[in-house]
Sequence to fold (652 residues):
Amino acid sequence: MAHPVITAVLLIGAVGLTACTNPDRFGSGSDSYGAGGAGAGAGITPGSASDPSSPAYFQAAVGDRILFPVDQSSLTPEARSTLDGQANWLSTNTAYNATIEGHADEQGTREYNLALGARRANAVQEYLMSRGVAGTRLKTVSYGKERPIEICSEEACYAQNRRAVTVLQAGLGS
Amino acid sequence: MPRLAVPETRPRRPGHRSLVAKVPAFQPRQKGFQPMFLRSIAFVLALLSAGGLPATPVTAQSGPLRIEITEGVIEPLPFALPAFVAETPAATQLAADISNLIAADLEGTGLFRRIPAEAHISRVTSFDAPVAYADWKAINAQALITGAVSADANGSVSVKFRLYDVFSGGELGEGLRLGGSATSWRRLAHKVADQVYSRITGEGGYFDSRVVFVSESGPKDNREKRLAVMDYDGANVQYLTDSSSIVLAPRFSPTGDRVLYTSYATGQPEIYLMQVGDVRQQALNTGQGAMTFAPRFGPDGQTVVYSRSVGGNTDIFATRIGGQPVQLTNTPAIETAPSFSPDGSQIVFESDRSGTQQLYIMPASGGEPRRISFGQGRYGTPVWSPRGDLIAFTKQNQGRFHIGVMRTDGSEERLLTGAFLDEGPTWAPNGRVIMFTRESAGAGGQPSLWSVDISGRNLKRVPTPGAASDPAWSPLLP
Fold:
């Protein structure tokens, strides 16, 4: 009889690494927007937050994120107001597409929070579409509780983590 | 002057009380318990019949050595495990290591207590020497485990052991010899410990098993996650992926050779299947543009049940690997965390269709589910016990998280833990122990792996090299 243990140990012992080239982005930075077709007006620095057609402006002035009450995916009046601004911006700056990232706070089980994040991202997508943004320009993804931006275990942090972030990507210049 | 009243020596086992573990009241005894060696026959090279002991092993005893695993506090059963005899010079260290690991397995259950060698009266210098029962009775060793280890120049190791019921003065079960390579010595020790545990408790063992989990590093707002696998006791950690993508919730196949998990490799969560042996991965293509997660094998090892989110709505689907998905739920609620019954006929899952997360059971082909959780709070991540009798779950109530178990009809709910954040139970192969994730609070919060008996006893941390989450227990290894 052979030694089954040997086989098992050798098989399990083979360690390999996956090769992934797709770094995750979590909508908390202002990097990696690529070369957008953003126009620059006179007297403002193209691409800076003072350039209304820049992603930096979208983040800072329009507001790239909205927050949700506990375990909710419905949009507050404040959230709708922010999303109205996002819809206007996207309607003007058609060179950009967007991925809407849904997030949850840590007070929930992992699977449920993934599903809850999907609900939140979808709520934003539907609202933006209702305001005239083409659905083909919008994607959604949920990170559940995997990517908090605030790390304390108190409501002040949880409130910031229950969010949907609209992350711009330079589109095909359409 | 009256003599000091010396109480009569109490019978060591009142009423010939057996020492076998009795299951908690809500857990029916397994009928037709099969000794584990029948299942691991490939590993067992020989029953021992040679030597100075009778060729016919003592098997039928009127009062076998048993532990009754009751709900109350139990006194751990004292056992003696003299260092196994090294029968070849090269085996000296191995013999010591194997002896200590067997003892660690047994003590780790909380059901056994090793009597230190310094207290021993007898010395065991030969595996076949007659047992001096009186010497072991004198130190109140209820069980005696003797053994011997030999190693040859080719790296082959042989371990023999015998288990004695000291107070009935006979062997419990037959002596066994196990063979393997020197590098597999931990498995040999775990197999011996499984035998001992099994014979004394009447339950299946769980020491010769592995755990796949997510190894975590980095700050809370930028965690790096890698799949890893290790022995049940934290030894032999091996990494299965790098940390370039978020990976979540790996689950073993019923044969332990494959793992389902969720990865963000493409940018959104999708289900992958990995061969543990060569870490080959394939996408299951369950998403078709939508995110899929929470996969689990059916008992056939070919069916996968999982969640898919479309338009923000999450439902449960099933597919044969490589086959066409079938939708099993269809409501606007979140339906996720599906888990098959061991016979494959039913699926337990969580849904918030009532307004909050609750547990439901439906036929494996879909259809009307019945709700089984009715207590206060929310219930999620149900997992069906491998014995079929219980469902483990995560419960959230009043700001705390609990791991609990209930019967499959929802009755006799029992919370086993309570903490800031406990979640994601997984069953030991024998259905008696649960491992789960416990995350500490605050900016420096870290997840770690813990285990607890279904009685609620023996809560303890499982050692891992760093932060760890999402454990899934393998079946007993072949």
